[in-house]
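Students often ask what a 'structure token' actually looks like in practice. Rather than answer in the abstract, let us consider DNA-(apurinic or apyrimidinic site) endonuclease, a protein of 501 residues. Its sequence is given first.
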Amino acid sequence: MRLCTWNVNGLESLIRKGYFTTFIQQTNPDIICFQETKISRRKLAQWSVVTKDWNCFLSLCKSNEGYSGVGTFCKLFCPLFKAEEGITGFLPAECLSWNSKRPWFCHLRDNPTWRETSYSVGYHFEVGGDSDKLLELDKEGRCIIVEFPDFVLFNIYVPFNSDEETFEYKYLFLQSLSKRIEKLLQGGKNVVVCGDFNCARTRMDHCDPDGIFQKQPRDIPFELEPCRILLNEICTPKGPMVDVFRHFHPERIDAYTCWNAQTGARKTNFGTRIDYILANKEFVDSCIVDCDIVSDIYGSDHCPVYIDFHCSMSVQGSWIECVEQLPPFCCQHFPDLLGLQQSLKDMVSCSVNVKHSRTEEVQRKDLCFKETTRSKRSRVRNRKMDSQSEKNVTLTSLITYTRAYSENSKNAEKNYCPTVRESEKVHLSKYQKAKEDWRKLFQSRQTVPLCSGHQEPCQLRIVKKKGSNLGRKFYVCARPIGKGEEGRCNFFLWYENRDAR
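Now compare that with the structural description of the same chain:
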């Protein structure tokens, strides 16, 4: 079997542009974990993300529509025992609020409390005063937990820390993940964690660990960042989990999964490895046979990572009872999606069919326009012929009339054209001179400088970072950021200083 994880940076765009088709055909996964789906509840029916040949679990952002979100898809033959949204255990299944008559219904909790229900994976941990912040994280759609017969799968999207507040959320999330894993392992469960961790484990996993090449030096050393320390405590040789990719490829360098799309860093492979698949050592040794990065699949600023494994799910047998008792968190229970499920094959071909239908419609309209134009021309031509036939003009009279008209026009041209031509020449010469003067004026003011490293025209950019230079324009090398001759050189010039250099 194959499990794939991928931060898609918008699942709707991935389906619409056809990248989802390439991903399915090239990887052929049995379990898919998506991060940053950015799908809202009202668009689920529109894009028919829920399929009838896959079991689907979606955690959508409830505080900001179209933000964050994770989704776990698994084929129907995979038995499912339980499924849970969020890492805290505070959130009830979202579909339960739509139908309170279900036997497993649990009322929304006014105050967050740890309480296991019949549909939750369980193995929760006690928390103190951070319950409100954890609940806010779970409302953003950052974690789905699914329990299979042989392991418990975490699909996570760790917050990105850009300031002190987001750093606190990120650290709290990783801390909660560590506690939840520890509880499951103590209960005798195998654990697999996959997703976007927004953190590179080691220097080998980062193109510029010290920030020297990007001229953004770190405030503290790379190895001493708190979130990185916590992540390495989870999956170091002394920790409970194994970084599966490094287990199979311990010495591979330049193996990245995320690149800056704004700087075109993927062309020069100037990126980071922040998408991981972690598993406990017993499961890695007994079940996982391979793990790799699929860097040639596009559609996002991340690329997929997969593992191949074998377990009891690989042998078809007594699974019917499990499949019939799907957890209530499964999207097939959502009342607003009943009857709208389609097969994955239909979903993959949806965007292609839409493109073909639009192309055919444009061609049909173009053909109708051409036929209409031809018919109009033919009618005009027939009218002219009818009018000529009504006048009974002979060929001889027509030739005589044409010659007379040409002689008269030549005589008129001799008398009139010289004056007109002279005035036209004067007018054109003045116009051309003014046009040339304006072109030279703006060309001198809009000259794009050449970079010092490659002698190529530079790219004009704007400072978007908060500070004293916010909004200022500057020139940099137009090549994508990266190391070596193919990467961007160190040329920099403020836009205001381009004429004084």
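One point worth highlighting: The longest strand covers residues 2-7. Ask yourself how you might have guessed this from the sequence alone, and why that guess would often be unreliable.
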